[in-house]
Amino acid sequence: MGWQISPGLRYYTQHSAYFYNTFFESIPDHGYLSSDYRLAGFGARSKKLEISKSFNPDFTLYLHYEKYGRRYDYEFHGQTEGSDLDDYSYSLFSLSFDVSF
Predict the structure, then answer these.
(1) Helix (H, G, I), strand (E, B) or coil at 50
(2) CB–CB of 79/57 below 8 Å?
(3) By C-alpha distance, which of 64, 65, 59 is closest to 90?
(4) What is the DSSP track for 2-19?
(5) 3-state SS assignment for residue 38
(6) What is the spatial distance between Cα 5 and Cα 51, in angstroms, rounded to a whole number?
(7) Kind of pairing between the strands at 88-99 and 3-14
(8) Sign of CA dihedral 29, 34, 37, 41
(9) Which of 97, 88, 50 is nearest to 69 (CA)?
(10) Are 97 and 54 in contact (CB under 8 A)?
(11) Three-state DSSP class for 33?
(12) Of 93, 36, 85, which is closest to residue 68 (Cα–Cα)?
């Protein structure tokens, strides 16, 4: 049984909704408004690496690593003004296994 290495790259981008802003001084003419950060424009990049080892046909062990970053300036043709407080990143390590019986 053998080893398997699975690398990955991911890029995601979205523009902000036309009714999104972090602060409104008055209600826009169209009447819609939201300050929900999920409607903001931003971009995200992640790098992944998974290594697996099959010990026999019934047991495989997996080691997974991911580095993720979300930032306003990763937005493709960025339109959204953001705050450094809303940018974040994380690293994730996990260990898992598959067993057949």
Answers:
(1) strand
(2) no
(3) 65
(4) -EEEEEEEEEEEEPPPTT
(5) helix
(6) 5
(7) unpaired
(8) negative
(9) 88
(10) no
(11) coil
(12) 93
Q: Which tens digit of pLDDT belongs to each residue from 55-91?
A: 999 999 999 999 999 988 888 876 666 555 578 999 9
Residue (of 68, 74, 59, 73) closest to 88 by Cα position:
68
- C-alpha 14/C-alpha 55 separation (Å) is 42
Ranges of each domain in the chain? 3-14+42-99
Closest by alpha carbon to 72, among 59, 81, 64, 63?
81
DSSP labels for 70-87? EEGGGSTT------GGG-
Q: Structure pTM?
A: 0.71
Q: Report which residue type is found at 20.
A: Y
Cα 50 to Cα 56: distance, rounded to the nearest angstrom: 19
| Short-list 49, 41, 27, CA closest to 76 | 41
Q: pLDDT tens digits for 19-65?
A: 887 766 777 778 788 888 788 888 999 999 999 999 999 999 999 99
